[in-house]
Amino acid sequence: MSVQVDIQPTLAHLAGIITASVSTLEQLPASQSLHETRSEDALDARSVLLNACQQVIRKVMGPTEVLKNMALIEKHNLASLRIINHYQIFDMVPQGDNRSTPVTEIAAKCHIPSDILLRILRQAMTYGLFWEPSVGMVAHTELSKEMIRLSPLLSYQLEVCLPSSLRLPDWLKAAQAGKPDSEYKSAFQIAHATTDTWWSYAEKRPDLIQKYGLYMALITNGGPHDVSHVVSGFAWGDLGEDAVVIDVGGADGFVGIALAQAYPNLTVFVQDSINLKEGADAKIPPALKSRVFFQPHSFFEPQSRLAGMADVLLLRHILHDWDDNDCLVILRHLAAVLQPGASIIVAEQVLGQPGTYDWQTERVMRALDMQMMTQFGSKERTFDDWEKLFKAADPTLQVVGMVQPAGSADTLMELKKVV
Fold it and tell me: Which GO terms of the molecular function aspect are on file (predicted)?
């Protein structure tokens, strides 16, 4: 959604925006969650409301207090969140109304002095994690209860990505901003004392692969990266009977399975590391074993003859993990086997210019772009970036269609060879 930002709105003007947005959201049916609705009116109202509330906070606090809070408070928010997640403290607090537990019991289980743990928890309470119904007693809030579900996501972000972000200045200095002859291609390598890429580093550590898999499962189950956006964002049913889709870099097949479940006309081959084959084969439902198959393959290697028979070659959340040179290798292998009339579907975020999107969407987009930089030495791309990349891979590749489903962070770009 395009948003025109009023640079100096008054508090009264912002209050009017907030009132109007709340009125729209209150009309949602009781069956629809405010956080999961796909109603375009509700999504727009929610975005406008978040933007207006943020402007109110900044306006009331003033620039000095905003910057001081960012420098002083936010690092300690992350520190306390990391400790709570590391020790799984949310599992030590009973759920249910009027239930709490002494901090001394939690401290004993964590082997942390109770006075220190109480200080950490009280800091976390300032941003809504837990509350203290009486002195020294800890009870859940809605936010702390949600940590139980989101723990794998938090583990990946706080244990793997946060150290990388903190070493970004060192990478800029040591790697000279990513020049080709640099030893380090990302801040991740400095933070974790390795010259391996994230992918080769993680392959040697099953615990990291497991964390990453759980993280991906969470972000693709609901919200702007939900797998349903890929299912609904392209006319898969129009491919005809016995259509073949190859999900390139498809992990354990969660996207391929979703496509096969929704479209009986599809046969899906999921390509990824041989290390994932056992788990991927086990995940395929019995009813789909005749239409979903796992094929060990590296997308840095030439494609098989099978790919030359595919109607669609799908790249979902693959290219943003790699720099332009690596992306060219991947795309050229696909273009080399793309049969006449077949398509490459690239499902990725398409960055807009600053101010194009609402506040919450833009801050997530920019944060993801920074994460690509720190973790992989790669980036999120604008549409102009994407077009240049596709043309550099094969001058005959053209974007012939684009769809961004409602509520989706990703755009599905359809590429065909046009001679």
Answer: O-methyltransferase activity
Q: Are residues 80 and 127 in the same domain?
A: yes
Give domain status of residue 6, yes or no.
no
Is 2 within the bounds of a domain?
A: no
Distance of CA 274 to the CA centre of its chain: 24
pLDDT tens digits, one per residue of 283-341: 999 999 999 999 999 999 999 888 889 999 999 999 999 999 999 999 999 999 999 99
Residues 247 and 305 in one domain: yes
Residue 5 counted as domain residue: no
Residue 333 among the catalytic residues: no
Spatial CA neighbour of 41 closest among 358, 406, 357, 365: 406
Residue 415 φ/ψ, nearest 5 degrees: -115, 140
Which long-range contacts link 57-62 to residues 24+ away (Cβ below 8 Å)? 59/9, 59/11, 59/14, 60/11
Give the predicted TM-score (pTM) of the model: 0.89
Catalytic residue among 225, 229, 317, 320: 320
357 belongs to a structural domain: yes
Q: Distance between CA atoms of 127 and 58, rounded to whole angstroms?
A: 17
Q: Are residues 260 and 297 in the same domain?
A: yes
> What is the count of structural domains for the chain?
4
